[in-house]
Automatic annotation (TrEMBL):
One of its GO terms (molecular function) is magnesium ion binding. It catalyses: ATP + H2O + phospholipidSide 1 = ADP + phosphate + phospholipidSide 2. Its main location: Golgi. Residues 121-178 form the P-type ATPase N-terminal domain. The gene is atp9b. This is Phospholipid-transporting ATPase. The active site is at residue 465. GO terms for biological process: endocytosis; phospholipid translocation; retrograde vesicle-mediated transport, Golgi to endoplasmic reticulum. SUPFAM superfamilies: Calcium ATPase, transduction domain A, Calcium ATPase, transmembrane domain M, HAD-like, Metal cation-transporting ATPase, ATP-binding domain N. One of its GO terms (cellular component) is plasma membrane. Its EC number is 7.6.2.1. Its cofactor is Mg(2+). Residues 511-534, 560-581 are annotated as: Disordered. The lineage of its organism: Eukaryota, Metazoa, Chordata, Craniata, Vertebrata.
């Protein structure tokens, strides 16, 4: 026939087209693999057998070539692969290719910026605007519709609804299909529109923020969006720079050429940071003189690193030209806050090229495991729907236009997949989020991602930060070790007495020295033989070094005078102890300076070039700061060169981690041992050393250092090389130990989580010994467990041998450093993850933020279990965003982690209730709600199938119009949705027996087994309701609609009651309210509850009120529900679930 030939041509064309694309895809894949074959060759080697002997490893080098990974992973890609998922890969590759072409980014280059002259910039820079909107006017409707219809459920209902415009496929009224779909889409569009308008308003507010711009004519106000590269901008105290990055050139406040900024919104650190201006511009007599000079800045290209900056400042009109190097200390990045003073700076980067925008990581849209499981069940229901439709057409004998009949049956059974499933689940998630935030036992908890509350009940791995998460990030000085003597908290008074005595001796010796007419020179002092120093002098030198070697600045609170004017305490040099606070980038340094204050040596003032110490007797000691070498994660140390004002002595002080300082200090036999002892006590250690410099030595160093700082290429390496020339044979002064206290109730919380079957991994940037000690003190590692410390490895062979050694251990915790972890993952990724997952606890120390996120992704890929990451700092954001469930703590490191997380809590101990109680309830409730909504669709589809089979397989609907809409909404919606209030275990019981949580991770509440049980229940009840109506009402067959529909409503209400485990008063109200609505609406259902004859209805409401109708409907309902109640009772009697045993 013509129809069959057209169909055959269409199918043939489709297959040819797909085969063409498939061949293109295979060619692209082969080109891609050949392109990277040489580059990836080492990684293509398969892992060696791990239990191989050491001799075999050394001798049998051929094992490296045994099974190339590429050959193992290469799969047969035929037509079967293409049909069962290959097309997804093809489409994804094409989309990625197109996206890569469309999103080609402009190459970022270094730039030359003239002061106050944006017009001189040769290059065009991005506009200084913030744009967080997802759509614009043109893309809003298509974008929102795409986000909705990319899911199978919504796309399915769109196709079904559109089919009703075809007259031959039309079944019932259009509004029965379009009204629910339109409601869902309307809610989504309105919600997206509201969010988009809010984003637009926020962006507009930020882009319209006024800044003071310095021009030749004076100060003018400009919008943030009008700021250009080269503009001179004035930024005042507590003014947040949201849009521009400015290296500082001129500033006026209580310190000459310096200011403090807060960077908590950029890097998560709440401590103030000192920023300095360029000396050349600082010497100008007035602000307006900035326009009278000819100067420019050469700045590096925009990059991600917020902790480094390289550039040069050049003044051309000077003779000779002035060149000054610029570093991170001369910059203010976007999203930082000026905490004190006023700043005038030139804009270097704008808009998309600022550090804050470049470092913005867009979080992935997280989809819960329960949603994925329901999506799979939905596809299974669709398959069942198609099979049922084919069976109906086959039983018809494929007569007539069977294609049309097949599609009509598909539409007729479309209620197998209920559109209300997504609506009910989304409303339930919102209800769970509201309950979490209203829980008085976990105050301050915020749900920022309302789509994944069920994930809290499915977690297997918890990855936690250490500092600020398990610990309070409050440092307390605990130990001072001088090599031969150690001082703890109970002997600090001895140190104080030594300090008082030593400075009293100095004061008494001053007159004698003055009477001699001169002070002994350094040369004469150092020429004598070395004499063993007394304990008092050693303590004095150690405390003095700790008080000088730091980046701490004392800050004095402003107070208001009588006339209302604000004065600073420093204006009159009022260095009162009560008014002083310390600011630094590290809490360790603040703890050390506070300790020196407690023993008598107080830091009272500091600026760019000097600092002052107050002795116990009140004398002020002044020191000139010649150089500062800030702490970096690479060097693991910081240093300072100072000149004492009274004597002129130049001293280089340095402190840092023991691993960095061990090779710098003079030989000793106690440092390594004592560092280990302090680490075992859970203390953070710092090694302090010094080196005396002559004037000639310092001048030589300063010349080489300034020359290195002006280098454009490899500046960092050259500067480091010059500094290292000083770091030789330094005198070891002392070893300090600082304690980071544990958070409240950390131990019982970790024990609770461990008993719940959750494996806890601690990922920290701290040193191995400290991390190990915190793991023990917090009971992350239980007392009876062994700890296997993974030895440092640097190549494949060492990693192989160490993994072999680790494999022989059983039930022990693993401690590994970030460097060793990287080596293991490079060569033995699968084996390492497999071994690590068997450990009860894992501690990864010296981890970078990128490594933390990498570990999360490894667990997701290799175990397919749900992961949770918890942290409190900006360095934890990547880990939190990568995890299936991210939890942020509002701590001392700022709110960056809290804002980026899915859930925000105020204390670590709250995670126990969040998981055990709310995670359990959310998962159990959503599982019951989702399956019940599907049951509600399957039961009515079963009745439709029975009805059609009895009436000669006719594709005629059983219920039409408002009956179908009312069934899914007002008649059953409230009782079904009331399942979100159900709970199987009381909160106290869930916390008392955390072992109950283990059952949740197995996913037994929503599985194919429970789904098949609900399918059987639906088929049974649908068959009983339809056949019962036909058998009992054989003589009044015309009333079949009223009979079956009334019994259906009663059955659904009773099934809700059967499903509920703990009654709530709102559940009772919902049951009676829905039944009352049904009874009240009978008066308006004449069109549907009249006498029924295939295609016509005529009113007959009097029949509904008769006694036979009532008892027969009750009998049908009883037969459909009573067996299920009996089965439930017997099951609870003879095979009760674990939670019911505890409840009883």
């Amino acid at each position: 026939t013509v129809e069959q030939s057209q169909l055959f041509q269409l199918v043939s064309f489709t297959l040819v087209l797909w085969s063409f694309f498939f061949k293109i895809f295979i060619c692209l894949q082969s080109l891609h693999s050949s392109k990277y074959s040489l580059e990836d060759d080492p990684s293509n080697l398969d892992e060696m057998p791990l239990m191989m002997s050491e001799e075999g490893f050394e001798n049998d080098e051929s094992d490296y070539q045994t099974l190339p990974r590429a050959r193992v992973n290469q799969r047969q890609r035929g037509l079967g692969w293409f049909l069962f998922g290959g097309w997804k890969v093809l489409c994804g590759s094409c989309c990625d290719c197109l996206a890569h072409i469309c999103r080609r980014k402009k190459e970022l280059k270094a730039r030359t910026v003239w002061l106050g002259c944006p017009e001189k910039c040769e290059e065009k820079f991005p506009k200084n605007t913030i744009k967080n909107q997802k759509y614009n006017i043109v893309t809003f409707v298509p974008g929102v519709l795409y986000q909705q219809f990319k899911f199978f459920l919504n796309l399915y209902f769109l196709v079904v609804a559109c089919s009703q415009f075809v007259p031959s496929l039309k079944i019932g009224y259009l509004y029965t299909y379009w009204a629910p779909l339109a409601f869902v889409l309307a809610v989504t569009v309105v919600r997206e529109a509201v969010d988009e308008v809010r984003r637009f308003q926020r962006d507009k507010e930020m882009n319209s923020q006024l800044y003071s711009k310095l021009t030749v004519r004076g100060k003018i106000q400009v919008k943030s969006s009008d700021i250009q590269v080269g503009d001179l901008i004035i930024v005042e105290k507590l003014y947040t720079e949201h849009n521009q990055n400015v290296p500082l050139f001129f500033s006026s406040f209580f310190f000459a050429g310096a200011c403090f900024i807060r960077t908590d919104q950029l890097d998560g650190e709440t401590d103030w940071k000192l920023k300095v201006a360029v000396g050349c511009t600082q010497r100008l007599p007035a602000v307006g003189d900035l326009f009278s000079i000819s100067a420019y800045v050469y700045a590096q290209r925009p990059q991600l690193d917020i902790h480094s900056f390289e550039g040069n400042f050049t003044r051309e009109d000077a003779d000779p030209q002035i060149h000054e190097s610029l570093s991170i200390e001369n910059t203010l990045w976007a999203s930082t806050v000026v905490a004190s003073g006023t700043v005038i700076g030139v804009v270097i980067y704008t808009g998309k090229e600022t550090r804050s925008v470049l470092n913005t990581s867009y979080a992935k849209n997280k989809v819960g495991l329960l949603d994925l499981e329901l999506n799979r069940l939905t596809k299974a229901l669709f398959l069942a729907q198609v099979v049922l439709s084919v069976v109906m057409v086959a039983l018809q004998g494929f007569v007539g236009p069977w294609f049309r009949n097949l599609f009509r049956f598909v539409v007729l059974f479309s209620y197998i997949i209920p559109i209300s499933l997504r609506v009910n689940l989304d409303m339930g998630k919102s209800a769970y989020g509201w309950m979490i935030m209203k829980d008085e036992n976990i105050p301050g908890t915020v749900v920022r991602t309302s789509t994944i509350p069920e994930e809290l009940g499915r977690l297997v791995y918890l990855l936690t930060d250490k500092t600020g998460t398990l610990t309070q990030n409050e440092m307390i000085f605990k130990r001072l070790h001088l090599g031969t003597v150690s001082y703890g908290t109970d002997t600090m008074d001895e140190i104080q007495s030594h300090i008082v005595q030593s400075y009293n001796d100095i004061v008494h010796s001053q007159p004698a020295l003055n009477s001699c007419g001169s002070t002994p020179s350094r040369k004469s002092q150092s020429s004598g033989p070395k004499v063993r120093k007394s304990v008092s002098s050693r303590i004095h030198e150690a405390v003095k070094a700790i008080a000088l070697c730091h980046n701490v600045t004392p800050v004095y609170e402003s107070h208001t005078s009588v006339n209302g004017e604000t004065e600073t305490a420093e204006a009159d040099q009022d260095f009162s102890d009560d008014n002083r606070t310390y600011q630094a980038s590290s809490p360790d340094e603040v703890a050390l300076v506070r300790w020196t204050e407690s023993v008598g040596l107080t830091l009272v003032n500091r600026d760019l070039t000097s600092l002052q110490l107050k002795t116990p007797s009140g004398q002020i000691l002044s020191f000139y700061i010649l150089q500062i070498f800030p702490f970096t994660s690479e060097s693991k140390r910081m240093g300072i060169i100072v000149r004492e004002e009274s004597t002129g002595d130049i001293t280089f002080y340095m402190k840092g981690a023991d691993v960095a300082m061990a090779s710098i200090v003079q030989y000793n036999d106690w440092l390594e041992e004592e560092c280990g002892n302090m680490a075992r006590e859970g203390l953070r250690t710092l090694v302090v050393a010094k080196k005396s410099l002559s004037e000639e030595q310092y001048q030589d160093f300063e010349n080489r250092y300034n020359q290195a700082k002006l280098s454009i290429h490899d500046r960092t390496l050259k500067v480091a090389a010059v500094v290292e020339s000083l770091e030789r044979e330094m005198e070891l002064l002392c070893l300090t130990g600082v304690e980071d206290q544990l958070q409240a109730d950390v131990r019982p919380t970790l024990e609770l989580l461990r008993n719940a079957g959750i494996k806890i991994w601690m990922l920290t940037g701290d040193k191995l010994e400290t991390a190990t000690c915190i793991a023990k003190s917090s009971h992350l590692v239980s007392r009876n467990q062994d700890i296997h410390v993974f030895r440092p490895v640097s190549n494949r062979g060492e990693a192989h041998l160490e993994l072999n050694a680790f494999r022989r251990k059983h039930d022990c915790a693993l401690v590994i450093s970030g460097d060793s972890l990287e080596v293991c993952l490079r060569y033995y990724e699968h084996e390492f993850v497999e071994l690590a997952c068997q450990c009860p606890a894992v501690v990864c120390c010296r981890c970078s933020p990128t490594q933390k996120a990498q570990i999360v992704r490894l667990l997701q890929q290799h175990t397919a279990n749900r992961t949770c990451a918890i942290g409190d700092g900006g360095n934890d954001v990547s880990m939190i965003q990568a995890a299936d469930c991210g939890i942020g703590i509002e701590g001392k490191e700022g709110k960056q982690a809290s804002l980026a997380a899915d859930f925000s809590i105020t204390q670590f101990k709250h995670i126990g209730r969040l998981l055990m109680v709310h995670g359990r309830n959310s998962y159990k409730r959503s599982a019951a709600l989702g399956q019940f909504v599907m049951h509600r669709g399957m039961i009515i589809s079963t009745m439709q199938a029975v009805f059609s089979s009895i009436f000669f397989f006719a594709s005629v609907p059983l219920y039409q119009g408002f009956l179908m809409v009312g069934y899914a909404t007002i008649y059953t919606m409230f009782p079904v949705f009331s399942l979100v209030l159900d709970q199987d275990v009381k909160p106290e019981m869930a916390l008392l027996y955390p072992e109950l949580y283990k059952d949740l991770t197995k996913g037994r509440s929503l599985s194919f087994k429970t789904f098949l049980i609900w399918v059987l229940i639906s088929v049974y009840q649908g068959g009983i309701l339809m056949y019962g109506a036909l058998v009992l009402f054989e003589s009044e067959f015309v009333h079949v609609v009223a009979i079956s529909f009334t019994a259906l409503i009663l059955t659904e209400l009773l099934m809700v009651a059967l499903t509920i485990r703990t009654w709530h008063w709102l559940m009772v109200v919902a049951e009676f309210f829905s039944f009352g609505c049904y009874l009240a609406s009978l008066a308006f259902l004449n069109e549907y509850f009249g006498k029924y004859s295939f295609f016509f209805c005529f009113p007959d409401l009097s029949f509904i009120t008769t006694w036979p109708f009532l008892w027969k409907v009750s009998a049908i309902t009883l037969v459909s529900c009573l067996p299920l109640y009996i089965i439930k009772y017997l099951k609870r009697k003879f095979s009760p679930p674990s939670y019911s045993k505890l409840s009883s």
